[in-house]
Fold this protein.
Amino acid sequence: MDEGRPIFVQIAEQIENDVISGALPEETQVPSTNEFAAFLRINPATAAKGVNLLVDEGILYKKRGIGMFVAEGAKARVVAKRREKFQTEYVRPLVEEAAKLGISQSQLTEMIRKEDSE
Amino acid sequence: MTTIVQVTGLSKRFGRFTAVDDASFSIEENRIYGLLGRNGAGKTTIMQLLTGQDFPTEGEISVFGNRPAENAAVLQNVCFIKESQRYPDDFTAKHVFEAAPWFFPNWDSEFAARLISDFRLPLKRRIKKLSRGQTSAVGVIVGLASRAPLTFFDEPYLGLDAVARQTFYDRLLEDYAEHPRTVVLSTHLIDEVANLLEHVIVIDDGKIIIDSDADALRGSATTVAGLASAVDGFVAGREVLHRETIGGFASVTVGPLDAAARASAAEQGLELSPVSLQQLIVRTTTGSESEWEDKS
């Protein structure tokens, strides 16, 4: 767990990561909030908050009396959301750090190409 | 949300010494609270007042809708595990666990038996002869297996090793999930329990200085480090919780920063780092008195 950010946001991100990677395929059941809480050693109310965040975004849905499931189209939704943030969270700091170190745009492009081909 | 404890204007003085100073707060049903603060801040006194073991000098306490002092109807729903509980001289742990159901209607002897084996507690040895950690384990087991609707743990784990403390946290979370109840945990080991807490109350010098959801506290402070002149320019006009300098460098802890402030700090080459709950509390409880008055 990362200290500076609310835990429920981090729980939601972890579940999203599992949805993107395919570890949690669409229409499968996700662990209960109590299972999340016990496994991650966090307060169950915090785990529930993280899960509910994803319910609000239509990534998880509740089957009454059974539990939480990954919604149809959840993967596409998570990917779309992450792409929106990619510019500000990854590209901008990368470009800023490159500028600080005097790395030119073409050198940066070359570095990305090299990483990609590996 | 049901409020089960309501404290209004509570003060407790011992002669000239004020242990609790005009404290007001409430406790909601089925949450895990952290009651945090330095030694002598007033944590234990507050818990003693809430469990009817002492009388307030001023103010009102309502627990389950009634005054707790000498009120059996309230106290049978309350379990208070003290830092150094004393037991009769010839008592063994077995005697304690056999007596517990008389006081706690929700006592679960199967759960107690499981905890006894988890903590490897010898039942037939006299408590006087147990190690410090084993004596603490007796209290922890009583606190968990009693399943009281309102349970206080006051520094429950003196002498417990890291493995036993983890067992305590794990069993507490598991059992709380199945049998929700209100738990108030008072401890110095803030980092260890930070993720278990839903709500945090911090007391310093008898006064409540933080009363907030644990999630809201995370990210509520940030440390800004860099050249002293740049740091000072950046924090000007902000609430400063803590300040350290080394030569021309400064490291200053301030309140929450929005995205624009973060971006501007990054442009000025300032380092931002998050502040853990433990650091936040250390920094908010080491200030001088006058600093506190400015803030309240």
